Amino acid sequence: MPRKPASIFIMMIAAALLAAQPASGGNVGRHRLPNGVTVLTMPGEWNRIVAISVMVDAGSKHDPAKLPGLANLTNSMLLQGTTTRTAPELAELVDGAGLSMGVETTRDYATVYVTAIDSEFDLALEVIADVLQRPAFDGTRLLEAQRIARENIEKRLDDPFSAPLTRVAELIYDDHPYAHEPGGTVKGIERITAAHLVKFHTGRYVGGSTVISIVGNFPEKLALRRLTELLSGYPDRQATPADFPPVSMEEAETATVFKDVDESYIVMGFVAPAASDPDFVAFEVLDALIGLGSGSRLVAALGENGAGLSDYTGALCRCGQEVSTFVLYASTEDADGAIDVIESEIERLSTEPVPDEELRTARNRLVGRHVIYGQTNLVRAARLASYELAGLGFDFADSFLTAVNRVDKDDILRVASEWLRKPATVVVQPGETAPPRGRKRAGI
Amino acid sequence: MRTAKLPTVAIAAMFLILLLAGCGRERTTTTVHMVTDNGAVIIARENRASGVVAIQLYVRDGAFFETSDEAGVANLLHARMFRETESRGPGEIQRAIEGLGGHASSATRHDFVQYAVIVPSENFDEAVELLRDGLLNAVFDPVRVERDREKTLKYIDDISKRPVDRAYQLCLAELMGDHPYGRLVEGVPEVLSRLTAEDIERRYREKYVGSNVLVAITGDVNPVAAAEKLADVVSGLPTGVQAEPVSPPVTWPTESRVVVERIDVRRACQVVGFPGPGVADRDNVTMDVLLVILMEGRSSRLNTRLKEELGLVHSVSAGWYTQRHPSPLFVWMELLEENVAAAELATVEIMKELSEEPVSDDELAKAKMQLKVGNIRMVETAEGQAFHDGYWNTIGGEEFASEYLERLSLVTADEIQRAAELYLGSGVHLAAVVLPD
To answer: What are A393-405's pLDDT values in tens digits?
Structure first.
């Protein structure tokens, strides 16, 4: 049974950047602390869980060129003890109060989050403020974190779906920092020292680059007062703006990777519109049309009722603040045949208007996914913070959902022609031969 | 309590109750419990937190209800259910549910088979009609049964190559002997190879009957109206005969054993299994507390001892599933080959300590808090709440589930020590080790 290509974090990014169903009874408040931290609040009593999501403009796109993985390692070390609590003390406190705490680093953001039952809300605030401001960056803990980071990189490169996803990003993004995964590279991880972590943390974990969102059953006024107190030492400034090179695919490219696999894995990647791009909503509907669910075109064309070439195929969009990465994937015993089918489906999207009923169900799949995935307070909090930090506004979800239902067949033709032109295609083939990297292939 | 008269189906019993969810500052949600004339059970719960509704169908089938000669028939049948009907082609129901903005999934467990749908609540009625067709009008095309058989055999082969799955399976098989909990729910290749489409259809006619079915609904719906709709659907099933277990009682090994297998893997994996209780045993909640003390969080005993202090494992976890019959407590770990014996020994030592000394007040309080919060988290989503209702009612633990938080608050250190002594104190265990070839 092939593993799914989309790791959990990819799903989180996509879901977080897309539309949310506003929680029933949830009115969002936007506040600014004296040190520039933006706080979004959505209080409500629909259940006893409170979620706090802290999102910082400190994603892996800010990794220094020689230190890929620094942002992720810095963020992961936030949970490895503070200057006021050792790692075991922190773990004891978190476990004892039934808190669930975690970190996640994407290409654009670093997130630390906690969920708690309402009675432990104040402690949750106190703990998250502590880890955000006072990480210990202990040397022994760093060694362990580096070992885990290296293992995760090896696992990723060993996985027949994750490995080509990584390679596709390299082909598409070239010198742009989106070319490397947030987890970094083994060489980069090995070069990182505690001093690097301190410098990165000091530079980017600052008030003007931080958004905190709180969703669930909590007292709003008290929360704002406590946050003001708890974050009084958090720096009142903006992180240095970064200047990224433009992304442009000059030509379609292909690469082959050989692995110990039973069948081939195809990953075809495209540069896609960022969430702030006017084409974003139509492109999301296109994504649902071609690759979301069993009613999608790829499943129809490649699955058992079509060419019978793949029983595992679909699309995913890794939404980014600069640009997004759109990927079509399939596992198959006939890579050439499957690529031909995928290319003809892309061609069809660019040239033939989508039937009304197909467009309607694609829109439904897209909206339904957001509603279903957005049930938990943690996802609601993550969405609010990501919209805000991306400059989309915390109410982005409402306008997105409205816009989805306005997308028509001309929009689909337009965005398909505009964006699905120069793919970076990586094929994982069974075998042990060294991969010929960067072989050129004619564009579609 | 009041009885409602339903226009389309005769209802044997229907209760409208107010269920106090969570604890402390409780919130009230309306829940309907209904039994149809043909014996099907409907539990519908209102949850307006999100604009979705989850519908889950539970059938008394699965490995627990299979003889060794039938091992895998329930899963092969499940693979064809809701796939094709007399009026809808292969995959059409799933596509239609997705076209409503929903999602459909299914699973075979040892104790039951589950079919789950979640849709935006405005599409509830259409989803119910799709479920009606899939449940009542299933067809079993021999060509597609053959395809499912091949997929299942490939899956069984694939998981035998994954170290954690393989070690777990070895441990389960050795611990449980002939009991069906010792088999994969996917079945046994020799049995699967001879099952026919007729066998699958016969199983459908026998097991998919009113007295074997439970439906759990949670979401942004009127629970009375929702229960009525689903009652109307399942009333189309014959009453049938309620499935009874065909499995022998569980007999635990009396001596410890180690099973070692070398396969093409990078890293060693070890699973250590100990006896545990079943859903009817009084030690249920106590065992949950004990399990949390062992494995929940970075400050748990297993993590602290095996990973932090002794550095024997890369990762360690533990699990115990509440099932109809007594089920094992497992500890699984990824580690270097040279640490396998020491990690096994240390694991048994940790278990013995639990049976020899009471846990501290702090440790007990921490474990209870984690379980309480876990219980609240589980029902945060509509599908989580529906699963909670469906699972416990299907395996006979509805009383256990409804009293869970109260019983949890009463668990003492002495009870934990007694349960540990009963199940873990003898030190008898089964270690299954998968090593790199």
So the answer is: 988 988 899 999 9
The answer to whether A304 contacts B90, with C-beta atoms less than 8 Å apart, is: yes
Task: Tell me the per-residue pLDDT of A246-283, one tens digit each, with 9 for 90 and over.
Answer: 887 778 899 999 988 889 999 999 999 999 999 999 99
The encoded tokens of residue B111 equal 């104790």
Tens of pLDDT, residue by residue over B379-430, are: 999 999 999 999 999 998 888 788 888 999 999 999 999 999 999 989 999 9
Compute the radius of gyration of chain A from its Cα atoms.
22
Contact A398, A440 (CB under 8 A): no
For residue B280, the model assigns a pLDDT of 87
pLDDT for A433 equals 57
Query: How many alpha carbons lie under 13 Å from residue A336 in its C-beta half-sphere?
Result: 1
Edge-to-edge strand list for the sheet holding A100-105: A29-32, A38-43, A210-216, A49-56, A110-117, A100-105
Residue bearing tokens 């008898």: B428
Chain B residue with minimum CA distance to A361: B99
Burial class (CB in 10 A: 0-12, 13-18, 19+), B1: exposed
Query: C-alpha dihedral over B261, B266, B267, B273, to 10 degrees?
Result: -40
Cβ-defined contact of A47 to B27 (cutoff 8 Å)? yes
Among A46, A76, A80, A95, the residue to mutate for chain B (most B Cβ within 10 A): A95
Backbone angles phi, psi at B356, to 5 degrees: -100, -30
* B226-282 pLDDT, tens digit each: 999 999 999 999 999 999 888 888 999 999 999 999 998 888 999 999 999 999 888
Using CA coordinates, name the residue in chain A closest to B162: A1
Cβ–Cβ below 8 Å for A368 and B365: no
Which percentage of chain B shows pLDDT scores above 70?
93
Cα A185 from Cα A187, distance rounded (Å): 5
Structure tokens at A298: 């790829």
Amino acid at A247: V
Residues 239-258, chain B, touching A (beta carbon < 8 A) = none
Given the structure tokens 């649902």, which residue do they identify? A288
CB contact under 8 A, B24 and A119: yes
pLDDT in tens, B290-325: 999 999 877 789 999 999 899 999 999 999 988 999
Q: Do B373 and A375 touch (CB under 8 A)?
A: no
Q: How far apart are CA A354 and CA A343, in angstroms?
A: 17
Q: Check: CB of residue B110 under 8 Å from CB of residue B62.
A: yes
Q: What is the pLDDT of residue B140?
A: 97
Of A174, A302, A257, the C-alpha closest to A426 is A257
Q: Residue A321 carries which side chain, given as an amino acid letter?
A: Q
Residues of B in contact with A116 (CB under 8 A): 373
